[in-house]
Structure to design on (552 residues):
């Protein structure tokens, strides 16, 4: 029995990294098919590429894929649709479901339909209700032996992921989160007896990771235990490829509890996977680099804070000791010895952070780039250069970052990027352009619930425009957030917000660091680019959250 052309499942969609596909790979179409089927059973990230090679070889030999194989190929290819390619996943999953039905694989069909719902643009209450129905159908099929434990557990997990994404819309978020945690615990109890099946072990690991995510804002210690168990299950299931999401979530929990060094070690290990035939996807490597850069910065800040506290705590004792030393020195007719300063680690930390950000930028280039991660990496690297006085390099990176934030719809990203662009232009001797960028940033920030960022940016725009020799209020500038008049009416005067306006050796305007971060988690139980859970900011009304990959 044949299906439609195997070219159908390609749609020009390719994974970030093709994975192993040369060297000792067989040439016989049937052996290639066997390999693709085996990788699919284990949930291997290279399954999509394996199916593509098998389908091509089969077509050249005059054969075609059966409906069941074609469906598995579509599923595997859709799972590779990330970043800019993500919108193609839903149609592929729906077509796979139809083919699974034709092949009599009812449990697999339910999984494909569930994945299609999760892959949609921001699944809402309707998708959640349809997933609940699919869970009931999967359980019914499982009871009569027409759906396996892995298929039933996968549908339930996907339903749990959508419920997690919708926690922010629940009337009582805490109660709904508690109910979801109970359901996930029941899912773990259902799957655990079948963990010898690699597919079940995969679902078990991902269920523990989701449980850790939902637990993190309320009980970090319990979340840490679940995430460590998720990594153990990942390895125990024979999954030799990286568990990027699990590493990001666990490292974020460790950072939140102050264990920066352990978080950094975990991320460094994730960036150097032990198995070379399953390389990290470029976007995953970029996210790990961003998270490690954040961890290194936090570790340095933590160390400086601890040293300051030690100095403050021993100030009185040190003063007394100094007096005694002075008296002793005088008696010995010697000069008092100056206290040696503590070794400063800031330069080393900053250097590592800069290198990590540069690596993140490199891994977000290319046709399959992740627009969101790429824009953030360029913004962070640009800011890092600006803070070191590299205004020209920073300007080029920020100009590259801005279109990404505009495409993604993240207002906080646009505001922060434009504000830093303005500061670079000011230090490069272009106050007129700088004032315009500040005013556009203010316009974008104006709709936020907190009026302070927009007002401060408006005052900054007026102050900078004054440096260009313009008198009176800044002309109105229309931005995506409406019209802003960057004049004294927006605040209490420009001089208090001015910072360093002369483009000289002084640092950047301090108000830049107070602006909301891009892509912050919009709700308490959502995940950001770094794997951090929880928190909300002014950008929440316009920026979509970064969800844990919902199709795996």
């Amino acid at each position: 029995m044949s299906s439609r052309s195997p070219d159908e499942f390609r749609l020009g969609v390719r994974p970030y990294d093709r994975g192993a596909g040369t060297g000792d790979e067989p040439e016989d179409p049937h052996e290639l098919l066997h390999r693709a089927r085996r990788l699919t059973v284990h949930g291997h990230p290279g399954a999509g590429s394996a199916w593509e090679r098998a389908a091509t070889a089969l077509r050249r030999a005059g054969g075609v894929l059966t409906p069941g194989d074609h469906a598995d190929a579509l599923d595997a290819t859709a799972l590779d649709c990330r970043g800019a390619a993500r919108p193609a996943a839903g149609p592929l999953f729906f077509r796979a479901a139809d083919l699974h039905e034709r092949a009599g694989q009812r449990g697999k069909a339910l999984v494909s339909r569930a994945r299609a719902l999760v892959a949609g643009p921001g699944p809402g209450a309707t998708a959640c209700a349809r997933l609940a129905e699919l869970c009931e159908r999967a359980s019914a099929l499982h009871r009569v032996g027409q759906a396996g434990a892995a298929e039933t557990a996968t549908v339930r997990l996907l339903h749990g992921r959508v419920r997690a994404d919708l926690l922010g819309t629940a009337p009582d978020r805490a109660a709904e989160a508690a109910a979801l945690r109970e359901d996930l615990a029941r899912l773990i109890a259902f799957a655990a007896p079948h963990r010898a099946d690699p597919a079940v072990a995969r679902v078990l690991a991902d269920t523990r990771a989701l449980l850790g995510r939902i637990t993190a804002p309320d009980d970090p210690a319990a979340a840490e235990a679940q995430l460590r168990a998720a990594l153990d299950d990942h390895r125990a299931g024979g999954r030799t490829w990286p568990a990027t999401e699990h590493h990001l979530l666990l490292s974020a929990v460790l950072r939140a509890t102050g264990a920066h060094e352990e978080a950094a070690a975990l991320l460094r290990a994730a960036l150097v996977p032990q198995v070379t035939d399953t390389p990290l996807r470029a976007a995953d490597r970029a996210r790990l680099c961003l998270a490690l850069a954040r961890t290194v910065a936090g570790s340095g800040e933590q160390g400086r804070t601890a040293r300051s506290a030690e100095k403050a705590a021993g100030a009185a004792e040190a003063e007394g000791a100094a007096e005694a030393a002075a008296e002793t020195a005088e008696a010995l007719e010697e000069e008092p010895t100056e206290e040696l300063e503590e070794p400063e680690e800031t330069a080393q930390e900053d250097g590592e952070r800069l290198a990590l950000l540069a690596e993140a930028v490199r891994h977000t280039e290319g046709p399959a780039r992740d627009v969101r991660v790429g824009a953030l990496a360029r913004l962070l690297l640009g800011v890092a250069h600006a803070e070191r006085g590299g205004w020209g390099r920073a300007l080029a990176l920020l100009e590259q970052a801005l279109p990404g934030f505009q495409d993604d719809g993240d207002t906080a990203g646009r505001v922060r990027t434009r504000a830093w662009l303005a500061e670079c232009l000011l230090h490069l001797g272009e106050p007129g352009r700088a004032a315009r960028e500040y005013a556009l940033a203010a316009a974008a920030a104006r709709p936020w619930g907190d009026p302070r960022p927009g007002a401060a940016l408006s005052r900054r725009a007026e102050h900078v425009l004054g440096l260009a020799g313009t008198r009176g209020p800044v002309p109105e500038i229309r931005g995506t957030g409406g019209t802003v008049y960057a004049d004294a009416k927006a605040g209490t005067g420009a001089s208090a917000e001015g910072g360093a306006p002369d483009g000289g050796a002084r640092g950047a305007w301090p108000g830049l660091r107070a602006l909301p971060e891009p892509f912050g988690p919009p709700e308490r139980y959502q995940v950001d680019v770094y794997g951090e859970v929880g928190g909300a900011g002014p950008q929440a009304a316009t920026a979509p959250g970064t969800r844990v990959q919902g199709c795996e």
